[in-house]
Write a structure and sequence with these properties.
Length: 209
């Protein structure tokens, strides 16, 4: 009886969540037929792919050189001029275009390598060429953003560079604190979940006696 009630409750919860998502996405639908949620998911997938295939660009380089998007976002704190903001946005647009091209090139290279690898008697030379193409595409993603990030810093004057360094250090400190807090929260949630699962198991054992 308890199992049936639990299963029915889970089904109701899933139905409610599904209904909420459908209604939310319907409200957020834009004129082009793609929801904001879908756009966010697509962007996040692109970012995650870039993180995995850019030779440590984010943990090694980005935290010291946040780039044009970050500079424009903090235009007020950095006292940017309208001309600097305009140049920063141009850098940002060019950088994203090159990144998209690089991601597509890498995906195509990986697809070609996988297709060739499935053959029973593939060409050794062809496979080596395919692997080199994958490596070259990943290397490109590892360095293609670097010039834009450095150029964004060079847009600033001396006093702005001081503010930039101070703000970047604050950002890094806040990020580290946020990550530590998330880890603590996750540990707490896991501990609570284990406790609830244990209680549920004990109840079910008592009912089956």
């Amino acid at each position: 009886m308890f199992k049936k009630i639990l299963l029915f409750s889970i089904m109701l919860l899933m139905a409610a969540i599904f209904t909420f998502i459908v209604k939310s996405e319907a409200k957020m639908m834009n004129g082009k037929g793609m929801t904001k949620i879908e756009k966010m998911r697509k962007f996040r997938k692109m970012v995650m792919f870039f993180k995995r295939h850019s030779l440590g660009f984010i943990p090694i380089f980005y935290k010291y050189h946040p780039g044009p998007m970050w500079v424009v976002k903090h235009a007020k704190a950095l006292d940017l001029t309208p001309a600097q903001i305009k140049e920063g946005k141009v850098l940002q647009k060019e950088m994203f275009q090159k990144t998209k091209v690089g991601i597509m090139a890498l995906k195509n290279a990986i697809r070609q390598y996988r297709t060739a690898a499935k053959q029973e008697n593939p060409s050794i030379k062809g496979l080596i060429t395919d692997v080199q193409a994958v490596g070259n595409a990943e290397t490109y993603l590892g360095y293609e953003m670097i010039p834009f990030h450095i150029k964004a810093y060079r847009l600033l004057n001396a006093s702005q560079k001081i503010k930039y360094t101070s703000l970047r250090k604050m950002m890094l400190k806040a990020y580290n604190m946020k990550m530590r807090h998330k880890m603590m929260m996750m540990r707490g949630m896991m501990k609570m979940l284990r406790g609830k699962m244990k209680m549920l198991h004990e109840k079910m054992m008592m009912m089956n006696r």
